[in-house]
Amino acid sequence: MRCFDRKENPPGEVNLPQDWKLTLEDAVQQGIAQGMAFMMNASEGRAPAQEDMPQNLENLTCKGLYMLKGDFNMSKRFRERVQVGQDRGGRPLYKWAEGNTKQELQLNVSKVILEAGLLDGFVSQSSAKANAPTVESFIYETYIPTFMNGLSETTKANYHQYITLNIIPFMGNMRMSDVNVSTIQQFYDWMACAAQRGRKKNLNEKTIERVSGLTSRIFKVAQEMKIIEDTPFKKTLLKITAEKAGHHTALPDELVARIKKAIPGLPKADERIYMALLAFTGMRPEEVRALRWQDLHLDQQYGRIVQAVTYPDNNHAVVGKPKTARSGRTVLLPCVVVNVLRPFQKESGYICGGEEPWCYSKAHRVSKGALKSLGITGYTDYDFRSTFGTQLKESGKTSAEVADLMGHADTRMVETVYAKTRHEGVMKHLQSIEEMNDCCS
């Protein structure tokens, strides 16, 4: 390696050996960092001009290799070359960062990187993730006020239950951006084992699907609002492992016949009216409780379903729209129902109530008392609707006719729930089978 001695030069002048370029290149190529110090000594603290530097050293990364003209004291100043991009030809572009200490140099390097826009995407992503709201705050501050207003009261009540009993307890404190596919799978498994945490029973497959559907919509809204980059719901990666859902069960024909015969003789008027409408019309319990005298036409034997009652807080009744658009319908009133209702007929007011519908506790007492009075165990109010639909289907009504009478939008519910084969239903076809085989007698 070539070396050169420091020479005394007049102020403002640089006197370098003729072979200084080769000397510096040799020093760098051999990895000797002191080469720069030699150059500083030789030039009285001044660096060679940028244009005089050898071209084959352009991309070397040795700290302090290329220096701008000006005073420089190696013991006090630190410099770092930072690549900030490329020119049109693909060659790297650099900027210098300086500092009196290493810490100051690191800070200034960061400033150069930020000014060049190299961290814009990273910073925005990190900031968005850090500032993302929790699941609970997003639901209560954004989703419920904005996206649940137009829903029916029944749907709202169901969604509030899904939120308060499932979504918030499991992930309410998590930030929206921290919820991933693994979180959702754990959520499914957690709901499937709800009984282990004190719930009355585990959530079945259908219920978990409904909760999942709501949760998925919440995260989809957050994605559309740019609060999260992507939704954690990936159907191909998620699996619900839970008990199969059971639907409301149709009562046996023999039991139904006994109950219908006993209803007109129930001693309490509230129980008699409620059970007559429930067992003979196929209405939902929430539709029965919302029925008003002005909705009925007893002489023509029909009524109109125009609203439903729900109890979101298990207390006061909330009157709203029926469950679906098709739920608003005409219901037929058999003579036995007309006869039960006529002695109590009024011009207006709620049939199950008065100026206001029954509150939750009153509705619960009437239902529980009626079932007990009729000797019904193992069945609920909703099972009478399933019984009505099943008997219609078994009597020969088409799926479309049953759907119309019960207020379903299409025949899927009829064909998957009410059309299930029962022993009673099969036996009703015995006469037809006998007639087919008369020729063999």
Brief write-up:
With 441 residues, this protein is mainly alpha-helical. The chain has helices spanning 20-29, 34-42, 102-115, 120-131, 135-147, 153-171, 181-192, 205-224, 253-262, 269-281, 285-289, 335-341, 360-373, 383-394, 399-406, 412-418, 423-427, 430-436; strands at 78-86, 92-99, 296-297, 302-304, 308-310, 318-320, 330-332.
Task: Describe the protein's architecture and organization.
By secondary structure, this protein is mainly alpha-helical. It has three domains: 20-128, no CATH class; 135-224; 253-424, Intergrase catalytic core (hpI Integrase, Chain A), CATH 1.10.443.10. 45% of the residues lie in helices and 7% in strands. It has helices at residues 20-29, 34-42, 102-115, 120-131, 135-147, 153-171, 181-192, 205-224, 253-262, 269-281, 285-289, 335-341, 360-373, 383-394, 399-406, 412-418, 423-427, 430-436, and strands spanning 78-86, 92-99, 296-297, 302-304, 308-310, 318-320, 330-332. The strands form three sheets. It has a three-stranded antiparallel sheet with strand order 3-4-7, with no helix packed on it. It has a two-stranded antiparallel ribbon with strand order 1-2. A two-stranded antiparallel ribbon has the order 5-6. A hairpin with a 7-residue loop joins strand 5 and strand 6. Helix 6 crosses helix 8, helix 10 (269-281) runs antiparallel to helix 12 and helix 10 packs across helix 13. The N and C termini lie far apart (122 Å).
